[in-house]
Specification:
Mean pLDDT: 84
Number of domains: 1
Helix content: under 10%
Order of helices and strands: EEEEEEHHEEEEEEE
Oligomer: single chain
Distance between the termini: 30 Å
Largest sheet: 6 strands, mixed
Number of helices: 2
Strand content: 25-35%
Strand order of the largest sheet: 7-6-5-9-10-12
Low-confidence stretches: 1-24
Radius of gyration: 17 Å
Length: 239
């Protein structure tokens, strides 16, 4: 099995946030642009106190693998998943949030789980707040001479449906973390960027373990409803 190392520099701009309003991504020849187009259900109602709710964008991660499925490196991960930045999680590490990415990374933390912690977060350069609108990432790869697999995983909390209900019991195949869990599992996208390719669109390939207990890809997509329209399109272009 052939392995190789890819190094990269990541620049991000989140549209709609004041810290990035005056920033522009300048693309040069050979740069790889990742464009995430929001879907109909990018924003999801998350309940607060007294019957109030707020519109939450999803948590997500984008990463690179080689053509054999070996994890190479994370391109971007939202701040909450990258730093255990959940508000009032009361010790719930939410292992059901992005389990496929976590298992592909294979990094075990001090409590035995695969998610980054407050004490050991991901590097700042590859994390950021979740955008409420479309997002563009700039990626520069060195030694890009073999196919690169670009994968992404997206998840909302508490977006329950008939297949993944709130009242599912722990141990059930459709249990997704209880009343404050995922509801529908995280959705996985994938695309192969070959040397010489100018553009590829990532395609949905399945969803993650509902309760986060394994790193499998489940392909019975008919069990998903709104989760399939969190993302409108993910396009990767070599400038």
């Amino acid at each position: 099995m052939k392995k190789y190392v890819i190094s990269f520099v990541l620049l991000t701009c989140i549209f709609g946030f004041s810290s990035c309003e005056k920033e522009e991504l300048l693309f040069n020849q050979g740069d790889i642009k990742i464009e995430i187009e929001t879907g109909e259900h990018w924003l999801h109602d998350f309940p607060l106190l007294l019957g109030l709710s707020k519109k939450n964008p999803p948590q997500f991660a984008i990463w690179l693998e080689d053509k054999y499925g070996n994890y190479l490196s994370t391109v971007f991960a939202t701040c909450k998943i990258a730093t255990e930045g959940w508000q009032s999680n009361n010790g719930n590490r939410r292992k059901e949030a992005l389990p496929y990415w976590c298992h592909q990374r294979g990094v075990v933390y001090e409590d035995g789980l695969l998610l980054p912690t407050k004490a050991n977060p991901l590097t700042d350069g590859i994390t950021g707040a979740t955008p409420k609108e479309n997002k563009t990432l700039l990626l520069r790869l060195d030694d890009f001479t073999e196919p690169i697999v670009i994968k992404a995983e997206f998840n909302h909390s508490i977006d329950f449906n008939e297949f993944f209900p709130e009242n599912a019991n722990e141990g059930d195949v459709n249990y997704s973390g209880g009343d404050m869990g995922s509801g529908q599992p995280a959705v996985i996208y994938s695309g192969v960027l070959n040397p010489g390719t100018k553009e590829v669109e990532l395609q949905i390939i399945g969803y993650s373990s509902p309760d986060g207990s394994d790193g499998k890809v489940y392909t019975d997509l008919e069990k998903l409803t709104t989760a399939k329209t969190i993302v409108g399109k993910i396009k990767v272009t070599i400038e």
